[in-house]
């Protein structure tokens, strides 16, 4: 999100009389990230959908559907905790430990290219742009290794040609991909056969809404589509997401799709372990393989956190030992003049040093952080109690949830800074396990507590990437803090309103928005309450947990080995289980496009005598961003039509149970 925000913000600024500065672009994308983080951090795609499908017999509670006002209050409860966590975490992981934060570094590299300034730091632009969200590019054997530190020379800096391309062709590339994605969203089946003029495109703009088969093509036959949910969604937005996440991550997701939907799903069905319809999350194969995905996610997250925990414990022990040693040593008096000189030297330390060079008036005051954290915890706990009442989580338990969120956010942020992967899914599950003892048997409290803890870790991690960008480009941390507060505040209203509109127009979870993570939250809460697993799922959970732990161990502790890059990402592998094949295949196409494009750039660089690692592929990022933005914007039209009660025109070609919006899928 940071890359796209910085890119679009820069392109918009070109229309202004005076373009924005790099530091202003940092604040812009920081505010944008804070706004866009809320749907994930506040659980609008996981926690709230899970609460809406509660079963009184299984869960001891009726479904909980939040009104607009309660959605606002819930958002307020979790909106600012992560923001106030950011300043102290910044001081520790960015200033003192100087963690990489690859996505934040990539955004800084992109902004430096857009604004024609020297690239920050000493990392390769290409490594930074590629190494994000746990993505390590597959290299040829003769290419240098990622772990080698290479000082950028003039030849490694982004070329003037790339800068001019972005300036002159940025809007063309972004607008073209935007319109292509929008037209793909709104193109109809008849338009594939009827030649039309460009002038009549506006007449076709809503056809995909009226002919939903366009986004649920039975590519592998109607039998596989109807009985096993194997369809294909030719969404350019999904393709763009695949480009952004990179080939290895997209490949890991599709490996999970093959194992889950082509092997385990038919196996559980034919063995009678999942007797219901395949798409049933309770008795069907989809609900059965969910447990295996949960085991993979949790085991992968825990193993990836082990070195982080080990380092935290080691550092803490070292600090305590030094303090005990310093207490035994006689104190040397320091004159006021020497003290002032020392402070001045610390303030003027180079950016690559171990101290913060920012003056105090650009930093967030400590008392703001302390009072903000206390207020967000107390007010958040009260608001959670107001929203969910006495049957939900107790106020004192909410306080524990916030405190756990603070502790877990430290682990998550450190993992994010080193690997570019925030293991919030595993951190949330750890909170659920703890609350199984604090409020046993309470499914609602278990889900809410996990959501509160995950919110802090999710928000702090996403905002920390922006603070890393600001640190590299010398943006004011206090200005970024203001942007985070503004973005989070605006997102409260925007997110709650959008969620209520979408829940009125579509069933969530449903065919259009399956919200698979909702069932992950609910399934674990039910397991902790009832202790019951679907037949034989425990065996496969154990087997895949061990397998995932082994691969995660190799990726974590043997990351410099040549074979480590061939191990799939555990979280991406599990997501392939959770999503139906329609979601994963299009992302694989995007990943393949990304791989081929970068190989082509590298080959051209070699023929021109340039370093292949110096290519940044900004054009591809521009096009992929347009794909994602185009479909997102045009989908608002579908939301308005659905809210107004406008139905589809024809279900021609639709396979029952697969086409979103079609009555045959209801």
TrEMBL record:
Keywords assigned: Membrane, Signal, Transmembrane, Transmembrane helix, Transport
Query: What residue range is the signal peptide?
Result: 1-22
* Lineage top rank: taxon: Eukaryota
Predominant subcellular localization, coarse grouping? membrane
**Topology within the bilayer:** Multi-pass membrane protein
Gene Ontology annotations for the cellular component aspect, listed alphabetically: fungal-type vacuole membrane
User: Record's InterPro entries?
Assistant: 2Fe2S_fd_BS, OPT, YSL-like
Q: Which residues cross the membrane?
A: 38-54, 66-85, 171-194, 206-225, 245-267, 288-309, 368-388, 395-417, 481-502, 566-597, 618-641
In terms of Pfam families, this protein maps to:
OPT (PF03169)
Q: Where in the cell is it found?
A: Membrane
User: Could you give a GO molecular-function term held by this entry?
Assistant: oligopeptide transmembrane transporter activity
Q: Does the keyword Cell membrane apply?
A: no
Q: Hey, which family's this protein in?
A: Belongs to the oligopeptide OPT transporter family.
PANTHER family referenced in this protein's UniProt entry, alphabetically: OLIGOPEPTIDE TRANSPORTER YGL114W-RELATED (PTHR31645)
Name of the protein this chain belongs to: Oligopeptide transporter
User: What organism does the UniProt record list as the source?
Assistant: Sanghuangporus baumii (Phellinus baumii)
